[in-house]
Amino acid sequence: MNFHQTVAAAILAASFVAGPAAFAAPANKVIAMVDTDSDGTIDLKEVQAVASATFDKLEKDADGTLDKKELKGRISKADMKDADPDNDGTLDKKEYLGVAQALFTLADPDKDGTLDAKELKSKAGKALVNLLK
């Protein structure tokens, strides 16, 4: 299992604990917010753009990383460990975008390179939505 699969699996497992209340945004609303080409689905490029903007919004202390406080529950302590290969207790933008990519891949079982509303309702899709909020 590679790094991204490990991170995604850990985050996916955590989503079982978080439950549906943690993912309040309806899938169609998320698609409308992320879908810049208005095709009714979201692709990895769109997800990466939103994940990058989310990282920038959360990164308050200008150190180039997100710590547990800045992540605001988007990633559990166990998931943080898996997503943090340098074990510094923070995620840099590359690591954060790696988590988004891994979750996108897990949420795309038909491997068509896009996520629709149904795929966003999967466990991996919900974890991705939580990461992007």
TrEMBL record:
The keyword Signal applies. Residues 22-57, 95-130 form the EF-hand domain. SUPFAM superfamilies: EF-hand (SSF47473). InterPro entries: EF-hand-dom_pair (IPR011992), EF_Hand_1_Ca_BS (IPR018247), EF_hand_dom (IPR002048). The keyword Signal applies. Residues 1-24 form the signal peptide. Keywords: Signal. PROSITE patterns: EF_HAND_1 (PS00018), EF_HAND_2 (PS50222). This is EF-hand domain-containing protein. It comes from Methylobacterium iners.
